Amino acid sequence: MSKKRIALLSFAAFSTLMISASFLEPAAAKMKGENTVMVGGAAMYPSKNIVENAVNSKDHTTLVAAVKAAGLVDTLASPGPFTVFAPTNAAFGKLPKGTVNTLVQPENKMTLTKILTYHVVPGRLSAADLTDGKKLTTVEGEQLTVKRSGGKVMIVDAKGGASTVTIPNVNQSNGVIHVVNTVLMPG
């Protein structure tokens, strides 16, 4: 058998394996008795912690990189529980050009940490707990305000900016994630 044919067969076998895995992964989760939610093309497993799930979401690569740069991986992998309002890559993309690159620089770690911990609330709050007008004290120390309108849940930051929850109740072993479409900014 030629090397070219072996390479082609290897590629075909690998491709089949990857396609099978992408279809079987959600089924495997159901078989384990876990109700998963798809976020960024990946199943979010309630038995995994916030960090273990977030690293698999293609919509949260900027958030994961920022969490690593801020040194918050161990915190978000701890028992918690935490409620995390997780901005997507598109949410970070709404910030002025160059902001994310500046924030992840070592000299800006304190500012980055302040912004990221402003997206985290102690405890496990489901979407049903996010009632209109509710004040949420973040790990950073400042408050967020919940606004409900037309069946949508919005989180209003200290500067009056609003972020809409696009995927609620993504349960984790150490809390819950609510995917949001805008980065929240502390005062």
Provide an overview of this structure:
With 187 residues, the chain is an alpha+beta fold. The termini are far apart. It is 36% helix and 25% strand. The chain has two domains: 1-33; 44-180, FAS1 domain (Roll), CATH 2.30.180. It has seven helices and nine strands; from the N terminus they run αββαααβαααββββββ. Residues 1-21 form the signal peptide. Pfam families: Fasciclin (PF02469). Residues 47-184 form the FAS1 domain.
Domain module count: 2
Q: Tell me the name of the CATH homologous superfamily of the largest domain.
A: FAS1 domain
Helix count, DSSP H or I runs of 4 or more residues: 7
In percent, how much strand structure appears in the residues?
25-35%
The CATH topology name of the largest domain reads FAS1 domain
Low-confidence stretches: 1-31
Largest sheet geometry: 7 strands, mixed
Task: Going across the biggest sheet, name each strand in turn.
Answer: 4-3-9-8-7-6-5
User: What is the helical fraction, as a range of percent?
Assistant: 25-40%
- What is the CA-CA span between the terminal residues? 67 Å
**Succession of helices and strands:** HEEHHHEHHHEEEEEE
CATH architecture of the largest domain: Roll
Structural category is: alpha+beta
Calculate the mean pLDDT score and round it: 81
The rough form would be described as globular
Taking Cα atoms only, what radius of gyration do you get, to the nearest Å? 19 Å
**Strand elements, count:** 9
CATH class wording of the largest domain: Mainly Beta
